[in-house]
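Example 3.2
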Amino acid sequence: MTAHAEGQREYADPIQAPGTDEIHWRTWTGWERLPDFRLPTSGRVVVVAAHPDDEVLGAGGAIARLRETGVEVTVVSVTDGERSHAASGAVTPADLAGIRRLELRDALSHLGGADIVPLHVPDTEVAQHEDRVTDTLRRVLSGARLCLAPWTGDLHSDHEAAGRAALAASRDLGVRCAAYPVWMWHWAAPGDTRVPWSTAERVRLPAPVLERKRRAVGCFVSQTEPLGPLAEDAAILPPDELAHHLRPFEVVFT
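Structure, written as tokens:
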């Protein structure tokens, strides 16, 4: 199955289009071809996220596994995600920013805890602040063993800009960097030629780790439940979307 199957309607924004049903991902035979990703067992790892919840959706299991072995984790939260419901009258952007910061702190506590470095870049405007983000990441990444960052092909401008900044800073410092997808699971499909499968590796999540990730994801109520009764208050991450992120493994591109 590909993302350009015959008869599929084209959308200007693939993230707003109907997504790929998780059953297609679950039954894909390509998973067994992916090698296991090697996580550090000591030192410090920096996880970059464009919005609070990206780090848990894309790498929450990896964070839990790292913390189990005593690895220090620093999460760089580039924006506060205040524009996830830009048209909603149920909550102001300022209030939503505060809510999402608290949700992130609670979520990370389920994964073993992490230091949080908030950058407060305006949501949806990371590309306009990419140089500043890169400069900050150079400082945060100094001495790190690994950087986990959003994939630069995720088709969300904030994710892609945060990923580019992380790649640039990591290369400058000689830090290994791997990219985690978030929205890719929505708009792509097994075997999609837009996805660099040749560089994909799996982070396996034992049952207790997956359960911790599940609890962490559940902390993001502002994203998983409607803010109000109107269409503009709808959940950003309904159950069919969350299913992509609650598999017994995560995927990174190296």
